[in-house]
Amino acid sequence: MKSVGRHLILELWGCQNLNSTEIVERALRDVVQACDLTLIGLHVYPFIPIGVTGVAVVAESHVMIHTWPEHGYAAVDVFTCGERANPEEALPLLREHFSPERVQIMEISRGIISAAPVAAQAR
Fold first, then answer.
1. Residue 13 in contact with residue 99, Cβ under 8 Å?
2. What pLDDT, in 10s, does the model give residues 41-88?
3. Structure confidence at residue 119 as a pLDDT band (50, 70, 90)
4. Of 76, 92, 75, nearest to 35 (Cα)?
């Protein structure tokens, strides 16, 4: 089954470093590099009193990290398009930066393409 992209949704529980904008930024940069993505822009935002959200906009789509330090939880999206990117390379780096006790991974194939041409499907 061919698709235009792969979307990994990672649930990280029992994490450390969740209130550090520096760690979130480093994790995003490391994931972008490890997954062979093209960085367009990166923004990390700290919440008051706690929590961090960071996004790396990449030519192939995006990588996002949202943290809830009060729950030891981080929600991570790694959405990649194209054949070159390998989103699985994100997990070892996320483990390194956040030391989760438990990880749940879901994968969605985005834009599933069937064998019939698009024009033929519209009839």
1. no
2. 999 999 999 999 999 999 999 999 999 999 999 999 999 998 778 889
3. low
4. 92
Catalytic, 43? Answer no
Q: From CA 122, how far away is CA 51, in angstroms rounded?
A: 46
The confidence score (pLDDT) of residue 63 equals: 98
The sheet with strand 2-13 has its strands ordered as 39-46, 52-58, 61-68, 73-81, 2-13, 102-113
Catalytic residue among 7, 20, 61, 62: 61
Annotation says 35 is catalytic: no
Is 99 known to be catalytic? Answer: no
> Which two three-digit tokens encode residue 64?
């996002």
